[in-house]
Write a structure and sequence with these properties.
By secondary structure, the chain is an alpha+beta fold. It has one domain: Alpha-Beta Complex (paralog of FGE (formylglycine-generating enzyme)), CATH 3.90.1580. The protein is built from seven helices and eight strands, in the order αβββββααααβααββ. The protein has a three-stranded antiparallel β-sheet, with helices on one face. The chain starts with a helix and ends in a 10-residue tail after the last strand.
Length: 286
């Protein structure tokens, strides 16, 4: 069984435990602003307005919602061409030289060579088969960072034509059509997807993406036997307390994040970078 199939089964189990598997956009974002004054967008990045992220699940000692300040997010995921520039400048992250502690054996396995992506990794397609360690190293090299779960989910809540995508039928159609398709042997160019309300492409419909705090998903301990484990966050039991039980895609993302280790790489997992938004410029003195 493929990784995608396992994720789908896990998500269905969570949703069934919650009493619903209705295909619908979840209501995990509240009070999101539609515009920011003095919007400053560096090339290739989009400004995501401040908002409030409501986690799909949470521990009893965690806040019910997370305030997310405005931030900058790459408008497209990191491509093979981008990553080639990184490994050219940083030899220790080349396929033949990377430590097994930081990336598993399938790291960049589809590339033709250390500095040759080849026909299976087109320049404009998102880079995949990269670990969290590698993604974080790239982000630091680029002067950026990985987005947090709250930031990523806040950005992903946007529709094509409005900041809140819960009622965006076109987005839901594209999202669930992508979830139903097998992973392609060669990923599509990042520019082929329709931009959302903020000008971001590919948060849905291209590849899964690393977030900085992926390992906080669902559980707080290292195993089921861990005495510090939050039992109400694991498997179906967690779905009973979920705020939004109909967001199938969100359950799939959570299942994926909970299954990963930092050195894992897969054929459908890439990343994009984020940055803190610059503070508002003080008005000039008259």
């Amino acid at each position: 069984m493929t990784t995608t199939s396992l994720l789908r089964l896990g998500a269905l189990a969570l949703a069934f435990a919650a009493g619903s598997v209705v295909v619908a956009w979840g209501g995990g974002i509240e009070n999101q602003k539609s515009k920011i004054e003095n919007d400053a967008r560096p090339p290739g990045m989009a400004l995501i307005p401040a908002g409030t992220y409501v986690p799909l699940q949470r521990a009893t000692n965690e806040a019910a919602s997370v305030a997310v300040p405005a931030f900058l997010l790459d408008a497209e995921p990191v491509t093979n061409a981008d990553y080639l520039a990184f490994v050219t400048a940083q030899p220790k992250w080349r396929r033949s030289q990377v430590s097994g502690m930081f990336a598993d054996a399938s790291y960049l396995q589809h590339w033709a060579g250390d500095l040759e992506p080849g026909p299976k990794a087109p320049p404009g397609a998102p880079v995949v088969r990269v670990s969290w360690f590698a993604a974080r190293a790239y982000a630091r090299w680029a002067g950026k960072r990985l987005p947090t779960t709250a930031e990523w989910e806040l950005a992903a809540a946007a529709g094509y034509t409005q900041a809140d995508g819960k009622t965006d039928a076109a987005l839901k159609r594209d999202l669930y059509a992508w979830l139903a398709r097998p992973v392609p042997a060669i990923q599509a160019d990042t520019t082929t997807l329709r931009p959302d309300f903020h000008g971001v492409r590919g948060l849905h419909g291209l590849v899964w993406e690393w977030v900085d705090d992926f390992n906080t998903a669902m559980i707080t301990g290292e195993s089921r036997a861990d005495s510090g484990l939050e039992r109400d966050l694991f498997c179906g039991a967690g779905a009973v307390g979920a705020k939004e039980t109909t967001d199938y895609a969100a359950f799939m993302r959570q299942a994926l994040r909970a299954s990963l280790k930092a050195n894992n790489t897969t054929t459908s997992l890439g990343f994009r970078c984020a940055r803190d938004a610059a503070p508002p410029t003080a008005p000039s003195a008259p």
